[in-house]
Design goal:
This protein is α+β, with helices and mostly antiparallel strands. It contains two helices and six strands, in the order E-H-E-E-H-E-E-E. The chain is globular.
Length: 97
């Protein structure tokens, strides 16, 4: 079952939402549509599920990612690289149960 959530009445910056979204990312792939810093929209299929991230990429990138409360680092499944999105830039997201 595919679930799509659009930014209508959702607080994508709340701690409760962030915790829930991180749980989804740790369980599988999530499609996130967000606005980049340059104003363009981007759609990204991403995950934090350990067995979906190649060990060579995980080892190479480990410890080099900056952490921020405003952004979430994720593994971009299509680009096979680490990327991030800002919580306040999310327009919609979807996942499959």
């Amino acid at each position: 079952m595919d679930k799509t959530m659009a930014n209508q009445q959702h607080d994508y910056q709340s701690e409760q939402f962030k915790h829930w979204m991180k749980g989804l990312l740790n369980e599988g792939n999530v499609r996130v549509v967000f606005t980049k810093a340059d104003g363009t929209d981007r759609e990204m299929l991403c995950t934090l599920k350990a067995d979906s991230i190649p060990q060579s990429v995980e080892a190479k990138e480990k410890g080099t990612r900056r952490t921020s409360e405003e952004a979430q680092a994720v593994f971009d499944v299509d680009k096979q690289a680490w990327r991030s999105f800002r919580w306040d830039s999310i327009k919609e997201f979807s996942f499959t149960l």
